[in-house]
Design goal:
Blueprint lengths: L2 H8 L2 E6 L3 H12 L3 E6 L2 H10 L4 E5 L7 H11 L4 E6 L5 H8 L4 E4 L4 H11 L1 H20 E2 L2 E2 L3 H13 L6 E5 L5 H10 L8 E5 L5 H9 E2 L11 E2 L1 H4 L4 E5 L6 H13 L1 E3 L6 E3 L3 E6 L3 H6 L5 H7 L2 E5 L8 H17 L5 E2 L1 H9 L5 H15 L4 E2 L6 H7 L20 H15 L4 H8 L3 H10 L4
Parallel strand pairs: 1-2, 1-3, 3-4, 4-5, 8-15, 8-16, 9-12, 12-15, 17-18
Antiparallel strand pairs: 6-7, 10-11, 13-14
Helix pairs in contact: 3-4, 15-17, 16-18, 19-20, 20-21
Bound molecules: adenosine-5'-triphosphate.
């Protein structure tokens, strides 16, 4: 059996067999069931047409010559109702004109009776290869998401597991969500993932960054305006709330919203109606709001800079995205994710990262969070000449962290004080420092230091470290 045929065992294919010769249909079904096909039999044309209307099939095998509804009618029906399915026609003679008509009508291939079982299996195998590929990709992507993330939100740290759990529960609802986190921690990515997993996903996701807009333009961006509503408003404009109707509006940097606009936004959220600037007509809107901020909105509210009533409306559910330095376990996963992304985009292949470069990426503090890590990986690939990403491809502030001195110690400022000290003191210093950086996570510390976990454990005990 060919590799392709073995593949049929892994991803089941649903096949409809339309044939008024009952014994023949059974024989076809039996030989395909042995290669993991799920077979349904229709012993007449009308029954076949009815099944095509009501069920999903990947491949349809139909006899050409049948009373009432013949094979050509089944082919037409299949092309209308199940355009992704492939149709194989069976005929007693390959030369008859209806075979030509069937091929012109979009049949995948034809087989002559009596059937050769190998040929039948091969034809079904080929006809279903596209659909199996799509399924395999979907299940791979799903598997990856389930293990390490949710809709492109990658993370394997306990804090990201909590975030992903939260996302899975709240995405399908209509709840307003407030996402908190430093710049570059993935707030917009998370907002998109919420939208993508909600019943609104076929409607627009509309992002608006409040801080990027001067106060005078913000309200017209949000609510729209009529022609002549203010100087410069020559034509009418539809606002983001209207654009997002049926979908999700993502308001980034919501903490920057001026007080006047805050009142208007609150009213819209309460009444679910908007009025374009310069108009008296109210329009009903159905929008899910997701807001984000890197400010401490709660303390802004307590200080009176942000309205309390609006704060409580926005923060029905709050998601906190921790900075990358507090979830270093996610760094290796993110590195691999971005390497794959950029290699694919740039049509490149790289051997991977050297240990020293990886150590530098693991020890850096990432003030710009995941966006900065992503940019660094992109930059490293752009700089790289030899297909191996090493410290020479790192930006300067990181190269210092990865530069190995002759005795293998991590270089960088502050290390000179260790020169002349006994080696075990130096080792103790570095283990303590690495533990500090990882927040005491041993697995990650071991990776960072390039030593086995058991060795690390022994040394922690030996040096009396916590
Ligand atoms: N968990 C993650 N997994 C994969 N990619 C991520 C993750 N978090 C962020 N990113 C990527 O990092 C970049 C920055 O993310 P995003 O724009 O969502 O951050 P942000 O918090 O909205 O930033 P800002 O506050 O500056 O608007 C994007 O390219 C995003 O795809």
């Amino acid at each position: 059996m060919s590799d392709q045929q073995k593949d049929m065992f892994q991803i089941a294919i649903s096949v409809l067999i339309v044939d008024d010769d009952e014994a023949h249909a059974q024989a076809v079904a039996e030989s395909l069931r042995r290669v993991n096909c799920e077979c349904t039999i229709a012993n007449s044309g009308p029954k076949g047409a009815e099944l095509i209307e009501s069920q999903q099939f990947d491949v349809i095998i139909t006899d050409l010559k049948m009373d009432e509804v013949d094979g050509l009618a089944i082919l037409r029906k299949a092309k209308e109702e199940l355009p992704d399915a492939e149709v194989i026609v069976l005929t007693a003679h390959s030369s008859i004109p209806s075979v030509v008509t069937a091929m012109q009508g979009g049949a995948y291939t034809y087989l002559t009776k009596p059937l050769d079982i190998q040929e039948l299996r091969q034809s079904v195998d080929k006809a279903s290869s596209r659909i199996r590929l799509i399924r395999r990709n979907i299940s791979l992507a799903k598997g990856l998401d389930e293990r390490f993330g949710f809709e492109g939100v990658i993370g394997n740290s306990p804090s990201m597991h909590r975030v992903i759990e939260q996302l899975k529960n709240l995405a399908p609802t209509d709840t307003t969500v407030l996402i908190l986190g430093e710049s570059g921690t993935g707030k917009e990515l998370v907002a998109r993932a919420i939208h993508q997993n909600s019943p609104r996903k076929s409607k627009p996701f509309v992002p608006l960054n409040i801080s990027a807009l001067p106060e005078s333009i913000l309200e017209s961006e949000l609510f729209g305006h009529e022609a002549g509503a203010f100087t410069g408003a020559a034509t009418k404009r539809v606002g983001k709330f209207e654009y997002a109707n049926g979908g999700t509006l993502f308001l980034d940097e919501v903490g920057e919203m001026p007080a006047e606009t805050q009142i208007k936004l609150l009213r819209v959220l309460e009444e679910r109606k908007i009025t374009r600037l310069g108009s008296n007509d109210e329009k009903s809107i159905n929008v899910r709001l997701v807001a984000a901020t890197n400010a401490n909105l709660k303390s802004e509210m307590e200080e009176g800079a942000f309205r309390g009533d609006l704060y409580y409306r926005l923060s029905v559910v709050t998601i906190y995205l921790p900075p990358l330095r507090d979830r270093r376990e996610d760094i290796p996963l993110l590195i691999d994710h971005f390497l794959k992304e950029f290699c694919k985009r740039q049509g490149r292949e790289v051997e991977g990262l050297s240990r020293a470069a990886r150590q530098a990426l693991l020890s850096f503090d990432w003030p710009g969070n995941i966006r900065q890590l992503r940019n660094v990986i992109e930059g490293m690939l752009a700089l790289d000449m030899d297909g191996k990403l090493d410290v020479d491809d790192l930006p300067t502030e990181l190269a210092e962290l990865g530069g190995e001195s002759p005795d293998g110690l991590i270089g960088g400022s502050g290390t000179d004080m260790l020169i002349g000290r006994p080696l075990d003191e130096v080792e103790k210093y570095y283990i303590a420092r690495a533990l500090e950086l990882t927040g005491g996570k041993r697995e990650e510390t071991a990776v960072m230091l390039g030593m086995g976990e058991r060795t690390l454990y022994r040394k922690i005990k030996e040096y009396g470290l916590k």
